[in-house]
Amino acid sequence: MEGTATSSRTVGQLTAIIDSVPAALVMADINGLILLANRQAETLFAYPHGELTGQSIDLLVPERMRAAHPGHRAAYTREPNARPMGAGRALFGLRKDGSEFPIEIGLNPVDMDGERYYLSAVLDISEREQTRQLQQAVESLERSNLELRRFAYVASHDLQTPMRTIASFAQLLGATYEEQLDKQGQDWINRIVVSIRRLQALVRDLLEYANIDSQASRFDAVSMRDAADAALLLLDEAVPEAGAEITFDELPVIQGDRFQLVQLLYNLIGNAIKYRGKHAPRIHVGAKREAQAWVFSVQDNGMGIAPRHHERIFEMFQRLHDLATYPGTGIGLAVCRRVVELHGGKIWLTSEPGLGATFYFSISDDRAGVQ
């Protein structure tokens, strides 16, 4: 009786000690019966205070794993040294409500009053597992995107030669047999040539989109005013033809990829010219410092865009107008969004039909300075 009393006092003292430990601890005997579980363990497994004592440790193991658990316990009993349990295996705990959660377990043999017990420290790794799974999903998505970009580049590049051949032979056919073809025959040949040109434009824009990541260079100091001037050189025919007037704020020097930033401004200014209203285009390129980023704007007096289209116009192949009136592939704004994302920012717009549009994009750069 004295030994039993001593053991009870020892267990009571041990319980008081481990209750103060900020970790889930469970002690069981060699048969797997729980001698004690601290408050953290009861909370972790969702049991009322004292209910786990005297229960089998298997109660905390999912049913699908219980058959193997006695064997694992026996193996540990033969070599009872402190070590993690289940190395190389995924372990799960079972709450009272039947829900499972991933765990890690550290095992330690404890000799007390001539008896051997086993103390388990249980760690809930749900958050870590979710982070790991998310990271795996992100890595898988990145690999898929890279493979898709490579495919788009190869496929688009390989399409160029046969398209040029088809267009050349169609034009040659029309020129050589012009007198022998009736109006319908000439119309069919013209349709072939127009369709090939549209396909060439689509392939060219797909190549441009695929190249955004593959041809990205190291970020350097880029004058956004110089980038805007370079974009205007590429629009040297469209600007006077439309009678466009383009003005600028003082634009900063930022860290970025110059080629991509020129491409971004070329697409936004070009769209403002292309989708003009009844009046000559008036376009203003602005910049404003906000927190740790520069927010740029390209404002126009064009036809505007209904709010319901503000999100989808940045998706690939999204067009709001017919090809005959406004030729294009619907890739330009998708290119803009990708360029901005690669510079750590976002792109959006404010617009109403008939009231023009303002496209905004942010570029994070702590080292930017206004010139």
Broad structural category: alpha+beta
Number of helices: 10
Tell me the major beta sheet. 6 strands, antiparallel
Q: How far do the termini sit from each other?
A: 90 Å
Task: Identify the overall geometry.
Answer: elongated
Strand content: 15-25%
| Quaternary form | single chain
Q: Secondary-structure element order, as H and E?
A: HEEHHHEEEEHHEHHEEHEEHEEE
- Nearest-integer average pLDDT: 79
List the uncertain runs: 1-6, 367-371
Number of strands: 14
Radius of gyration: 35 Å
Instruction: Specify the helix fraction band.
Output: 40-55%
What does this structure look like?
This protein is α+β, with helices and mostly antiparallel strands and 371 residues long. The chain is built from ten helices and 14 strands. It has helices spanning 2-19, 39-45, 63-66, 69-78, 126-176, 183-214, 224-234, 238-242, 258-274, 332-342, and strands at residues 24-29, 34-37, 83-85, 91-94, 100-112, 115-124, 220-223, 245-248, 252-256, 282-290, 293-299, 347-351, 357-364, 369-370. Strands 1, 2, 3, 4, 5 and 6 form a six-stranded antiparallel β-sheet that branches. A hairpin with a 4-residue loop joins β1 (24-29) and β2 (34-37). α6 packs parallel to α10 (332-342) and α9 runs antiparallel to α10. The protein is elongated. The termini are far apart. Mean pLDDT is 79; it is low at 1-6 and 367-371.
